[in-house]
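Regression check, iron/sulfur cluster case 336:
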Amino acid sequence: METGLRPSTACTNGGCRHARAACRQPECYTRCYAHYANRGIKLTVIGSNISWTNSTWNLATGCTKVSDGCDHCYAEELVNRIKTTFKRPFSEVVLHMDRLSHVRKFKPLPSPDGPKPHLVFVNSMSDFWHDAISERDIHRALDVMEDAEGAIFQILTKRPIRARRLLVERYRGPGVGIPKHIWIGVSTEDNRVAVRLNIMRSIRERVGDVVLFASVEPIVGPTDKLDFSGIEWVITGGESGPHARKMERLWLMDALERAQQAEAAIWHKQSGHIRSHPNIREVPSQLIRPADQMRWLREHGWELLPHEKGGATVDRQTYRQLPRAYQEVKAALSLV
Ligand code: SF4
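Current build output:
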């Protein structure tokens, strides 16, 4: 995406933490929230640096916390960091329904084997099913998503009960189902919120077809009770940021194993912090500094995706799979 902005003057004020040198990279400065915010450019639709999506689409900003996975919410951190743009406290949900029309920007993306769907993370700065967003606005947004060709909408929540109620009201009935390009996801950071997966499965029981996914991120506790049966896509990851909690190797391995048992596609996003790296025990103990530890892992072939925070490989393996529905939507695009 070419913005015409001058990278050499970008990201040096307004709270952005990126070094000036980093902002000379197009993939950095065109995706940097603060870069846009500092110039009064609307934070509506931008390329995302979240590896499992292509863009974010925020019809609301602000949220309230519901479980331990929210403790270091990155959306809250961003709102607090760029106060001049967001202006309101994070706990206040602010609607941006004027951005519905921006859906037309989510065109299919080119690829060597034909157009591929544009992955869109809906409300990365809030929760689509938050009580503060009216049922009318939620249905307006779903209307727009249903009509959008070429995009896959990823709606992730920690509020599956409201999601279930509204989805069942809208889609129940024989042969209705939820369109394949609207994926319904739930965050399950550890065993304590395992019940959220049951709630998601019960959506399928009531409406029929639905693509369900789970984000096990940030993993902050044991995951051996998470049941991914019927879940088509599992995203895993550790916590990043200055106060990141450690992800134990066992917690990650249990989540991966259970996702494999359920035959879900897996996307391990990142380990979040070097001390959560599942292969950190391989690093010689005399290396103390995180940068040295990461370098050692790279030099010894453990790390294949070093640009992800804390690395994104597990035992020299990467997990970058997408659910079958992705290929189905992609195939339909090629027929158009
Ligand atoms: S539900 Fe999501 S957006 Fe809302 S506070 Fe929790 S982590 Fe943040």
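Comparison notes: Strands lie at 45-47, 55-57, 60-61, 94-95, 118-122, 151-157, 182-187, 211-216, 233-237, 265-270. The pocket of iron/sulfur cluster is lined by residues 63, 65-66, 70, 73, 75-76, 126-127, 158 (CB under 6 Å). No diff flagged against the previous build.
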